[in-house]
Amino acid sequence: MSIYLDHAATTPMIEPAIDAMQRSLRKIGNPSSLHTDGRSTRKDVEEAREVIARALGCAPSEVIFTGSGTEANNAAIKGLFWNAPDKNLIVVSAIEHHAVLDPAHWLVEHEGAELIEIPVTSAGVVDCDFLADLVAARGNEIAVISVMAANNETGVIQPIDRVVEIAGNIPVHCDAVQSFMKVPLDYAGLGLFAMTISAHKIGGPLGIGALILRRAFEMPALLHGGGQEREIRSGTLNAPSIVAFATAVTENIYNATSVAALREKFEAGIAQVAPDAQINGQSAARLPGISNITFPGTQADFLLLLMDGKEISCSTGAACTAGVHRPSHVLMAMGHDEIGATSSLRFSLGATTTAGDIEYALSVIPDVVAMAKAANAL
Ligand code: PLP
Fold this sequence. Notes:
The chain has 13 helices and 14 strands. It has 378 residues and is of the alpha/beta class. The protein has 2 domains: 3-11 and 254-377, Aspartate Aminotransferase, domain 1, CATH 3.90.1150; 15-251, Type I PLP-dependent aspartate aminotransferase-like (Major domain) (Aspartate Aminotransferase, domain 2, 3-Layer(aba) Sandwich), CATH 3.40.640. The strands form 4 sheets. The chain has a 7-stranded mixed β-sheet with strand order 2-8-7-6-5-3-4, sandwiched between helices. The protein has a 3-stranded antiparallel β-sheet with strand order 9-10-14. Residues 3-360 form the Aminotransferase class V domain. Belongs to the class-V pyridoxal-phosphate-dependent aminotransferase family. NifS/IscS subfamily.
């Protein structure tokens, strides 16, 4: 019995997306070629672009396909910074994914940018009062503000509408990789400048994402070459992945209500089988499928291996560098100390998660936690 509870890392491709990808792989024609074959592939790509635009409430020309969510985040942070040469301040939330944090830090180290991180409450929600004070004091120095729609470790949903309101004329980028197709997202309605999405979190293929970027906005080219994607991101378009991405959007099988009900069952069960466990971000609005749990007196990497031994895939949520588990910057920002931030696991449920999966996980957790506590005590 193998139980997959790591859907926030990646979720299985849905069958219609696999079929669409296979059909596209069998077609010939570079979407930039002018002959009939090329135009046919181009038509597939443009139809896919329209599907994604409709799902987000943006114009098709605002969808720029990229090789990943990571690439779109890098493009947004660097592009918006470079586009405002008279402004030197980058503002991001303290709980951003590394694909936002690291390009921001890179700009500090290599381009002399100044970076300010917006703190979060103990529930994991960005502190809008801090942002409002910062914008009031130094708004004319800020090149870009980036706040994610929902956090990938805790699932905590962020008040993006309020962030945009506070930002006024300052461009806001939103990493919506975890939220897209899970909770309503209206790019134009929110008034965002830029947004990031990624196919493999919604039942599409790995290695394809999109940067949603305001139509009138000119950004420096990130890749130079054939001039594709508004000359921002040159490179032959990955038509099979793009088509499959759009199919994952149209054939979406994610049911937020049933995923939320399973998560509730899981967390109610955790309260029974591990009464000292703490569910991070529980008091905030969260995505339906993510449950981040601190098991006091344990080491998360050991817990993870024990869970794996019971054929359950879950995650520590935090980055792992060369096999060394670093404390989660997200949990630390929420007020955990290093010990708390290294004794937490992320369970993430998806469209294919069943009640049986949850029951099995709950049946093994008491033993796993007891073993991890015993090992930690040694
Ligand atoms: N942003 C968030 C919030 C994520 O969770 C992820 C993936 O884990 C990414 C960005 C990176 O997306 P990709 O895997 O497509 O590079």
